[in-house]
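RETRY 2/3 - previous attempt timed out on the joint model. Re-submitting the same 534-residue input unchanged.
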Amino acid sequence: MARWDAPDSFADFIRDRHVELLRFAYLLTGDRHLAEDLVQDALERSGLAWRRIRNQDDPEGYVRRTIVNRYLSRVRSLRRERLVAQAPDAGYVDPEIADGQTWRMLATLPRKQRAVLVLRFYLDYSDAQIAEVQGCSVGTVKSNASRALAKLRLALAPPDPPGGGLVPVGSQRTAEGTTR
Amino acid sequence: MNVEEQLRRTLNDPRHTVTGWADPVDRVAHGIARRRRRRTMVAGAAVLVAVAAAGVPTMWGATTYTPPVANAAPGPVPWLDQPAPRPTDLARREPLPMADDCRTSSLGRLAWTETGTADNGDPVYTILLGNTGETRCTLHGSVGLRATDAATGQRTDLAVAHVATFADPNGGPATMEPGEPARVDLRAPLTCDGARQPVRYRDVRLVLADGTEKPVSELELRTGCQLTVGDWYALQPLLYADRQVTLIYAPSQVRRGSTVDYVVRILNPSDGLLRLQPCPVYTQRFAGQTQSYRLNCAVDTIEPHRTVEFQMRLRVPADAPLGETRLTWTAVLAGGKVAIANLGAGGVPLTVTP
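RETRY 2/3 succeeded.
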C-alpha cells in the first residue's frame, strides 16, 4: 500500500493532542472502542484537509467538531465496517469511578443531550459555541441542556424521606431544570 | 453538591484519562493511505462505469428516464405487471472446508446486524462479524452477550439460551474468506409464557470464547423474555451470472406516493449469447419495500456485445421516509445465478421528496 507521509505539523499535532482527543471522545460516547474509532476517523479526515485546516485559527476545534458530528450521525457512518491499523486483542472493562452514578446516568441520555453536557461542563463551551459545533440553534442547545439536567436532577436527587410524601418547603424536586 | 458540580467533577475525573496509542502518527497515516487508495478505486470504478455507459446523458427527467440507446434494440422492453414470488432457490458458492480458528485480532472491531422476522413474528437479529485478516479462518461455537440496561445504565451479562443453530445446518461452523462475515442469530421474543416487564438494552457487545468483546453497531434489544442465540454460521455468497453487466437508470428524486418509471440496461459484453430463459424473476428493493416481478421476456436473448433495456416501474410508498435511500435491482437467471444492477455501488441513490 502506498504510504502517506504526514506533514510535520500534522504529525506534531497528532502526537500532542491525540490523548486529549481520545479522552474527549470517550466522555462523549462512554465507550472506549467507539471513541478510538471516532478520533481515528476525525484525524484521518483532518489529515486529508490539513493544509486548509492548519491555516484556520483552531485546528483542534475543527477535529472536535468532526468528532461530535460523526458521533451524532453514527447511525449512518458506523454501518460500514472500518479497518484500522491496530486492532485490540483483548476487551476492555471500564473501571468504576467515584461518581459512578452520575456517569451511569450520563449513559442513559440521548446522544445530543449528552454531547451538550460534555461540551458545556468539560470544555466550558458557551451555548453559542455548542450551537456552532452541533449545527443547531442556541435555543435547541438550551432546551437539550435543560432536559438533560432535569433528568440528572431527578435521578441523582436523594430518595424521599421515609414515612410519607411530605417534603420540606423549598426542596421539592422538579422535572424542569435550569440553564446556566 | 448540585448536578452541575457533580457533572464537572465526573467529567474531569482523572480516571477518565485514556491511554494513548503506541504510534499515533503511523496509525493515522495508515488510515489515510487506505482512504486515498479507496478513493482512487472509487474514481477508477466511476470511470469504468462511465465508459460502459457511454452516451448516457447526465440530466435525469423528473419522474421518468429513458436513456439514449447505444447499440441496442429500439426502445426499452415495456414493463410487465406480473408480480412473482420472491425467488429463494439461489445458487451459492459451495461451503468452504474448515480452516484454522480465527484469531481475535483478525476479526472486525465492530459487528453489525440484519433484522428479520421468525415464523411466529418475533424479531430475529442476525449479527455479522467480518474476517478482516488476510487468510481464511473458521469461527466455532456461539457467543455471549453483554449490554447496558438503558433504564439504569448498568452493564450486565445477558442470560441467553443456546440452540445449536437456527440456520441451514450446512452453514456452520463459519469458515470465511478474508472480507466475508460470519453470522450468528439472536432471537428476542416479544411475548412468551411468564414474560417479565420488558427491559431495553443498548450498547450490546458480543463476548467471544476468549472473553473479548466486540461492539454491535446500533443494536438495541427490548424484551421481557428469554433471549436465544445460535451458533456461528456462514451464508455462502451468491453466484453471479456470466455474460452480463446490469445498470439502473433512474431519476435522482422521487415523490412520495408517486409511480416512477425507470430503466434497467443489461449489456452482454461477452462473445456468446446471453439467454434469459427460463424467464427471470427480478426483485427491486426501495425504501424498505421489496417487490418481485417477472421480467418481460418478449426479448429473451441478448446477442454478444449488445444491450437490451427493460422498462421498470416503482411505486413509492406514501409513507416512504424522506431523504436519501437506495434502489437495488436483482434478477435471478438460469441456474439460480444472479444479475445485480450497479453491483459495485450497491444500487443507485434516490432522494424521496414530499
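Chain A touches chain B through 66 residues (CB under 8 Å). Closing ticket.
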